[in-house]
Each structure stands twice: as C-alpha cells, then as structure tokens.
From TrEMBL:
The lineage of its organism: Bacteria, Pseudomonadati, Bacteroidota, Sphingobacteriia, Sphingobacteriales. PROSITE patterns: PROKAR_LIPOPROTEIN (PS51257). Gene3D superfamilies: 2.40.30.170, 2.40.420.20, 2.40.50.100, Helix hairpin bin. This is Efflux RND transporter periplasmic adaptor subunit. Keywords: Signal, Transport. The keyword Disulfide bond does not apply. One of its GO terms (molecular function) is transmembrane transporter activity. Residues 1-20 form the signal peptide. It comes from Pedobacter cryotolerans. Belongs to the membrane fusion protein (MFP) (TC 8.A.1) family. Residues 75-218 form the CzcB-like barrel-sandwich hybrid domain. GO terms for biological process: copper ion export; plasma membrane copper ion transport.
Length: 376
C-alpha cells in the first residue's frame, strides 16, 4: 500500500513539472524590444500585417479663448454734469431698449443752466437790435467806430454764449428750442444708447454722482465674438474667413460655428496674439467672458499613416511593431500626429516606408514585452 502511494506522488510531481515546462514552452522569446514566436505560437497569436499608406490628412489646431464684445457694443453710462440719482429701476441682467429712460438725475445746476440759456437768449435779441442800429448810424457817420465795435463785440459774445449753452443743454439731453420760462426743470433723464442688457449698476437712489462716475454698464451681446490666443508658430496656418468650430467645457457636444474675422498684428511677451472670430449664429446661452475651446482645421497634406490599432501607447509614448522576419517582431518608437477616419499620422513615416507592421495583435505584443520586463 505504501509503495502504491509513493508511486502516485511521483506521478503527480512528474505531471506538474511537465505542465510547467509546457507553459514555459508556450511563451514566446523576448529579448529587449524583440519578440520571437514558434510556428504554433504565431498561428495562435492571429496577427495581421499592414504597410504604411500615404494619404491626405487634415490636421486640427486646438486653441482656447473667451467670448468678448466689441467696444461699440459695450457702453459705460455717466452724467456729463453730475447730480443726485432720483430714480432708476435697473438691475444687472435686465434688458433695455435703445432710447428708453433708465434713470433720472436732478441738481440745481440744471436749473441754472436753463436760466442762463433763456437770459442769454433774451439779451441777444436786444443786442441784435442795438448792433443793427449802430451799424446804420456808423454808415452815416452819425456815431463813432468805437461805439459800433462795442455793439458788434457784445452781439458776437452773446451769440457765442448762446451757442455754448445750447450745446451744454444737448449734452444733458435737453432740446434748447423747447426750453421756455414755463418748463424749466431741475431734473434730466438718462436714455439707453443701445439695445442690450445691464451688466453693472454702480449707484443707488439719492447718491450724488460726478461726471467721472460710471452709473451703469450696458452690453449688446448680439455681436459677440470669440477672442482666441494663438502662438507665433501657428499664426501662418490661419487666414481671414477660415472656419472655426467652438464649444464650451460644460457642453462639448454643442458646437458653435464661427469664422476668423481679424488676426492680431502684434505679439505679447508670451509670443502670442489674439485672433477674433465671429459666430455665424447668435446664441443667447453664450455670455461674454465665457471660456471656450476652438478647433481650426488646417489644410490637408499628404502623410504616411497606419491604422489606429497598429499603434499602441505606453507611458505617454507611442510604439509600433515591425516585422523583422517571419517569426520575429521588433517594437519601435513612432512619432504620431493627426488621427482621422481610423488612421493615425506617422510623422517619421518616411524612414519606415518599406517596413511591414503588425496591425491586429499589436497590443498583445506590447503587453508580452512589458510583462517580461517586469518579471526581470
């Protein structure tokens, strides 16, 4: 009985050793970046092969920037002569129409300005009559030149003053021709100069504002554009009218088409400049200041390409497997570029033009080499 037990133990150990040897024999030989198969292993691996192709590949330049508004669509509203804010209903985000009253300002200087205008207007009527009378007397030598000159100077002075006061009235929104002693007002109205939205309200009712203070800021977003930053090395790839595809980080699937409207002519310290793009359609969800991504398709060039599955990545580097012989394959580093329609551009493809590459099974070969390296 004991002899039979020993026999079974020896048989079991022999069987395990044979299986271990069989497993070892099933593994291909790996030396550095080369891997060698037996006929059976090669058949089992099911590898397929491909050569470099030459085809047109359109590269994509990826940029970023933010939505901006041209200066003519942004307005800072101030009061030319200052005063106390009497009334306003504006809130940030509120829409206003061009010509709409958005605030009322009052101050005694508005009364004084209208008074000065009406008094000057009254004086000029008398001065004109006196000027014409002195002119006739001077022509008949009934009065001296000095008197006539004084009358002329007085009339001209009042004419200049009336014109100046009239322009001041226009500056605060008053029509000089409509002012009379019956409608002198202590307040003026502030009108919206554009259609748009309120972005800032810097005052409150009762506050005194000076001419240098900005009461409100308005923006008309219908003419928003995208200002993207482009480095010097990429400027030569862009041109006016070129199509740009843009999207936000929050909604990358929602694409917004734009075209290049203006390319900056000066470079900053980081060797970049702004390129302005105009959106084809206005989207209310695009708010000035929003950061966006932009993709510009560059003109297609002939390039050497491989199918995507023929190129594998490991630790941020790209590799491909070259067929050295019927059973031997070598892993080489490749420089990649654009990926399009299932193909990947091989930038150093000119030096590899006559090589045969592994397509199906390339990732398996990569794992075999890397696992062997870890075991060692």
């Amino acid at each position: 009985m004991k002899t039979r037990y020993i026999y079974f133990v020896l048989l079991f150990l022999f069987s395990c050793t044979a299986k271990e040897q069989e497993v070892k024999e099933e593994q291909p030989i790996v030396v550095d970046n080369k891997i060698t198969f037996t006929d059976a292993q090669l058949k089992s691996a099911g590898l397929t092969f491909v050569k470099l192709e030459e085809q047109k590949m359109a590269s994509v330049l990826r940029l970023n920037g933010k939505i901006d508004v041209p200066p003519q669509n942004m307005v800072s509203i101030s009061v030319p002569m200052g005063g106390y804010l009497k009334n306003t209903k504006l809130l940030p985000g509120m829409h206003v129409n061009k010509g709409e009253v958005i605030a009322t300002i009052e101050d005694q200087q508005y009364i004084q300005l209208q008074q000065d205008y009406l008094l000057t207007k009254s004086k000029i009527a008398f001065s004109k009559l006196e000027y014409e009378r002195q002119k006739e007397l001077n022509q008949s030598k009934a009065t001296s030149d000095k008197v006539f000159q004084q009358a002329t100077a007085e009339y001209n002075s009042l004419t200049i003053m009336l014109s100046s006061l009239g322009e001041k009235l226009k500056l605060i929104g008053k029509n000089p021709s409509s002012i009379s002693e019956k409608n002198i007002s202590r307040s003026i109205s502030i009108y919206a100069p554009i259609d748009g939205f309120v972005t800032k309200v810097n005052v409150n009712i009762g506050k005194y504002v000076s001419p240098t203070d900005v009461l409100f800021e308005l923006v008309n977003p219908t003419d928003i554009h995208l200002a993207i930053n482009v480095f010097e090395k990429d400027l030569g790839k862009l041109f006016i009218g070129q199509e740009v595809v843009t999207y936000t980080n929050n909604d990358p699937k929602n694409k917004h088409l734009a075209e290049i409207l203006l390319i900056g002519k000066d470079l900053g310290e980081d060797r970049s400049t702004e390129v302005h793009c105009h959106f084809e359609d206005y989207d209310k969800t695009l708010i000035p200041g929003t950061y966006m991504n932009a993709e510009v398709q560059i003109k297609a060039n002939n390039s050497f390409v491989l199918p995507e599955d023929a190129v594998v990545s490991f630790e941020n580097k790209n590799y491909a497997f070259v067929k050295k012989s019927a059973k031997e394959f070598e892993m080489i580093s490749v420089q990649t570029g654009v990926v399009e329609n299932g193909f990947i551009e091989v930038l150093n493809g000119k030096q590899l033009a006559n090589q045969t590459f592994v397509q199906k099974g390339a990732y398996t070969l990569l794992m075999t080499i890397k696992n062997k390296a870890e075991e060692e």
